[in-house]
Amino acid sequence: MKILLTGAGGQIGTDMLPILVSRGDEVLAFDLAPRPDTCPPEVEWLRGDITYAAEVNTAVERFQPDRIFHLAAILSAVGESVPHRAWRVNMDGTRNVLEAARIFGVDQVFYTSTIAAFGPGLDQPVGDHVPLRPTTMYGLTKVAGELLGEYYEHTWGIDFRGVRFPGLINAGIPGGGTSDYALFMYVDGMRDGRYESFCTPEAKIPFMYMPDAIRATLELSDAPKEKLGQSIYNIAAMSPSADEIADAVRARIPGVELTFAPDPLRQAILDSWPDALDDSNARRDWGWSHEFDLEAMSDDLMPKIRALIGDPGVPA
Ligand SMILES: NC(=O)c1ccc[n+]([C@@H]2O[C@H](COP(=O)([O-])OP(=O)(O)OC[C@H]3O[C@@H](n4cnc5c(N)ncnc54)[C@H](O)[C@@H]3O)[C@@H](O)[C@H]2O)c1
Known about the structure:
Elements: E1 2-6, H1 11-22, E2 26-31, E3 44-47, H2 53-63, E4 67-70, H3 76-81, H4 83-104, E5 108-114, H5 137-156, E6 159-165, E7 167-169, H6 180-192, E8 194-197, E9 207-209, H7 210-222, E10 232-234, H8 242-250, E11 257-260, H9 264-272, H10 280-286, H11 294-309
Parallel strand pairs: 1-2, 1-4, 2-3, 4-5, 5-6, 6-10, 7-9, 8-11
The structure holds nicotinamide-adenine-dinucleotide.
């Protein structure tokens, strides 16, 4: 299958590329950033700006993908510091991708939404079909992207589907999300012996380990359309508090110092997100099931982070 992966140089894309290649997919990676060393040689890398329709159209016309996995975005914390840029990348970028899919007849556009699509005050766990009243620029652009994709589906017949990811954790360098404190506890805890989280110990949001997130993406993308009762699905795995994550790190790095100094801006964003998601529709419609809880993820993650820190390409 031919897959165009936008935002391929980010936290998710970097881990997804080798998996797509191992499935035998032909991949065109599209990103503003230069080709990273980790990109498999089989992948064609195209530097481009998702906010310029002409660049997106040229890529789609030439490559003729069967599916577009649309990852390129400005995430929550960065989005609050440069909201105009988040608007442009997340809104114009998504519209450009959907337009290119319409013009050049792409079968499927896969959208990566987020728990940031939800706002405060919802009953927990939060289901798929609740009022979407986010308080961040990131969240509101993601809600608009979900709705725009559904518009293209019912108006133009594009197969539009996607997931609302929890905060994602992998052995990598986070891209500016408000859930980054979790990964930094592992990375800085191992590298520096200490990390001060920008949230309270009680802060609690849904998390997922990257292998589960990528498997969910591929499973939903491959699911028969007639099984899907909706376009966008919540997916869930675990909802540890920041202190529970710290305990999992402490159990694996003796003597590590993990402290908390809440940053008002990022704590407010965390407070506006769900504690836990109800993903029963995903489990029913396309058989979603997570593999990694906090303990299984921590066990798998530690050796990978050790290898990452030993990599001379990663700043010490
Ligand atoms: N990582 C998470 O925890 C998480 C959680 C929920 C949803 N998501 C969603 O998943 C997707 C991927 O997330 P990620 O963590 O890999 O993000 P990331 O910030 O690590 O990567 C985003 C990529 O998009 C690229 N990009 C930014 N502006 C661009 C532009 N104008 N043109 C082309 N490329 C551009 C960046 O260079 C980067 O490589 C996003 O849509 C995000 O909203 C991520």
